[in-house]
Amino acid sequence: MVRAYLVSAKPKRLGHAVMLGSPYKGSKVVDVMQALAGFERVSSPADRQLSTDPKS
Q1: Cα–Cα distance, 26 to 16 (Å, whole number)
Q2: What is residue 35's DSSP assignment?
Q3: Using CA atoms, how far apart are residues 6 and 35, in angstroms rounded to an integer?
Q4: pLDDT at 6
Q5: Which pLDDT belongs to residue 14?
Q6: Is 31 exposed, middle or buried (0-12, 13-18, 19+ CB in 10 A)?
Q7: How many other C-beta atoms lie within 10 A of the C-beta of residue 5?
Q8: How far apart are alpha carbons 23 and 16 in whole angstroms?
Q9: If the chain, 56 residues long, is cut into consecutive pieces of 10 residues, what is the mean pLDDT of each piece?
Q10: Nearest alpha carbon to residue 30 among 14, 13, 49
Q11: Long-range contacts of residues 14-18, Cβ cutoff 8 Å, at least 24 apart
C-alpha cells in the first residue's frame, strides 16, 4: 500500500515509512475474522492464506 501511494501521490516531504509483513505462523486476527459473516465476500485469497491453519 505504501508503494502504491508513493507512486500516485509523490509527496514532497515523506519522512519515514515502516513496512510490516505478516507473521510467519499466520495471524489469529484472520482466524477470528473468518468466522464473521461476509469475510469470504470482502477478502481475497491472499487474505485467507494468512490464517494460522497449517494448510494456509
Answers
A1: 27
A2: T
A3: 34
A4: 84
A5: 82
A6: middle
A7: 12
A8: 22
A9: 83 82 79 90 87 83
A10: 49
A11: none
Buried b (16+ CB within 10 A) or exposed e, 32-50: ebeeeeeeeeebeeebeeb
Which of 22, 19, 26 has the alpha carbon at shortest distance from 3? 19
Contacts of 51 (CB under 8 A, 6+ apart): 26, 27, 30, 31, 34
User: Which residues neighbour 53 within 8 Å (Cβ) at sequence distance 6 or greater?
Assistant: 26, 31
pTM to 2 decimal places: 0.51
Q: How many residues in the chain?
A: 56
* 3-state SS assignment for residue 6: helix
Structure-block grid coordinates of residue 55: 494448510
